[in-house]
Each structure stands twice: as C-alpha cells, then as structure tokens.
Amino acid sequence: MDKIILMLEEYLEKHSSHHIENNPKEEFNKIFVEIYENDISYKSLLNDVLLNIKVLIENRLFRKDRVFEFYGDNYSYKNKLKGVNELNEIAKAISQLDTRIVQNNTKFLLFYYYYILSLSLAGSYPEIMIKSLDEYVGVLNHFKESNGITNFFRGQANSNWNLIPSCLRNIDQTKTWVYTFEDLVDQYSSINAYDLYGKIIDSTKDEYQMVSFLQHAISFSPLIDFTLNFQVATYFALNNYIKINDFSNQDAAIFIIRDLKKTRELSSAELKDLKIGIYSNGKKTYKDYKEIYDKMGRLFGNDAQFSFSSKVTNDRMRYQQGTFILFNNYIVDNINTSIIHAKNGLFLTKIVIDKKIKKDIWEYLNKHEPEYKIKYLLNPYLIFNEI
What we know:
- The structure is a single chain.
- The chain has two domains: about 1-120, no CATH class; about 130-385, no CATH class.
- Helices cover about 45% and strands about 15% of the residues.
- It is built from 19 helices and twelve strands.
- The chain has helices at about 1-15, 15-20, 25-35, 40-45, 50-60, 65-70, 85-95, 105-120, 135-145, 180-190, 195-200, 205-215, 230-240, 270, 285-295, 315-320, 360-370, 375-380, 380-385, and strands at about 75-80, 125-130, 150-155, 175-180, 225, 250-260, 265, 275-280, 305-310, 320-330, 330, 350-355.
- The strands form three sheets. A five-stranded mixed beta sheet has the order 1-2-12-6-3. Strands 5-10-9-7 form a four-stranded mixed beta sheet.
- The protein is globular.
- The N and C termini lie far apart (about 70 Å).
C-alpha cells in the first residue's frame, strides 16, 4: 500500500502540480466529511477506492489496438496522456494488492488522490496523426465504409482549439460559479439577440429551435456543431470560413465522437437545466469545492452528460448533415486547457492534420468531393446557381 501511495504522489507532483499545490488535503477532507457523512454511495465508493483508481486509469489509457479497431490503422497514433508508463505501473500495482485491507485513514488519502487524478486525466483522449494525403484518404475511406456505425465529426481550423461551446469562450474565470441557462439568456439579452430572433422567427417557438438558430446566426450557444459527414468536417478543418490561408501555418483537427445512437435526444427542457461548473483560475480553496458541489451536486471534473439533436432547423444544417450535441453537468478548470469528456460512455478521438498537407487534401477534395466545398456548406443555394 505504501508503494502505491508513493507512486500516486510522485505521479501527481510531476504531472498535476497545479492541482496538488492548490488543493490542501486537510481542507479537502473537510468537504468529504460534511457532504458525504451519511451518503451510502460515497461509503461504497470509499471502500472500493483503489479499484476506482485502477478503473479510472484504464479508461484513460485508450489501448492502441482499440483505436485501430475503430478507425483503421493507416496513420500515426499517440495518446494525449502524460505519464502513460507511470499510470500503467500504478494500475498494475493495484491489481497485485488485496484491496480489502485498506485502512480507513488511508482511504481518505486515496480518495483525495482519486479526485485530483480524475481532474488531471479528464481531458485525455487518443490522437490520430495524419501526415500524408495517402493517410488521409485511408481514414476517409474507412469512414465511408463504416457499416452501421454512426460517427459524429467536428472540424476545427486550429488543432490547439479545445472542444468547448462558444458560449464559454469569453466567460469570467476570476471566480468560481455555475453557468446556467439564465446566464445564456443574459448573454443573448446583452446583444439584443431576442429582438433579432423575433423579427425572423416566431418567438413562441421552443427553446431548442431558438438556441440552434442563434448558434448559426450569431455564433454562440451551449450547443456544439457536429456533422455526420467526414468530408464536411474536413472542409471546416481546412478553412476559417472561406479563407484557407488564415490558418495555413496551423495544424488542423477533426474531433470524432463514436456512435451516440444509444444516448438521448436533446430537448428544450434539458437546455433549461443547463449546468456548467466554472472553477476560478489559480488557487482553489475549500469554498470553491463547496460552491460547485452545492450547485451541481458533485465534486468530480468532466463527468459530462451528453445528448444530441437530429432535428434540422435550416437548409444549411441539412446540407452539412449537421447535428448539435449538448454537453451538460461538467466542470471547467481552465477554458484554454479543458476539453469536455465524459468519464464513461463517450469515446472521443482527435485527428490532427499536419499543416504541410492541408493544401494536398484541399485539392483532393475539390477534385473528388466538390459538392462539399466550403462556400456550398455556408450557402447551399450557390450550388444550384453554378450547375
């Protein structure tokens, strides 16, 4: 047991120093006692804390063969996870230990490490590296031939951009608070979005239709645009709208969410229940953790719920084969480094397209998939004028 504790301490000090420094164990244990004193589920979790650490690590390691099984093997691969070897050693050591003999005072310490580790690993995901046109075509053909599997794609012109909804891009992170639907309404009111919406569409329509319209019309909402078409996502990854040269010196990215058929359809009621915990940047205190828990009912980092909508609200969305995904009930520690990721039930992968082959892919798609040119994706009526 002492060996495992030492391994966890060394890993967290090396790879999660900002969490370790800002989360004193004494303060952190206070919130456990106060919140979970009579919580049976917490006691059960506490009893299995070593097993939970092991499962957390294994869920984040993303075996290479699993990625190859899902997406073929015509590319380079890396896991965006720090200290993979150390984590493997920790999981192995836990497997070799009798987890029933953990003392109570040690359990609280391990639960603290479990919490910090969950924050540290929350944004981890495998990356596929595409460095040649042949590799791109291989991945493209793989998705064209995916039998019965629904994948959702999102192209972004700069691979450094995170998978964060547009409504969070300019929010206040100088304090700890919870972003709700009311905050979204305030954002819309500040730019007179409702007046614009009311002039175009009957304002008595449901909240989903309004928010999805505003996402496309004024470019921010809690929804994130995805498409069912890999070529469409690629065109968006190669462009900032029509200006391909704006990001010619940046690697591009395509995020993939695999098969959401079993998840729920997005509803207006779910939008109104929106909760996103925002931790202030810098030092965290007992009050920060308590505030997030009181308003969201939990402590952990990115345990996101997710739902998607297949309801098409405009012709552009139809032509793009677009869908909206809403992530809810997650916590953001730093907008610049966070990425939405559910602990369970969501397999997220990021394709990174080398900037050196952007032009090659652009020319290939213009030749073989011209109907998905970016100008048509932004205005589908143009294609009828140019036939």
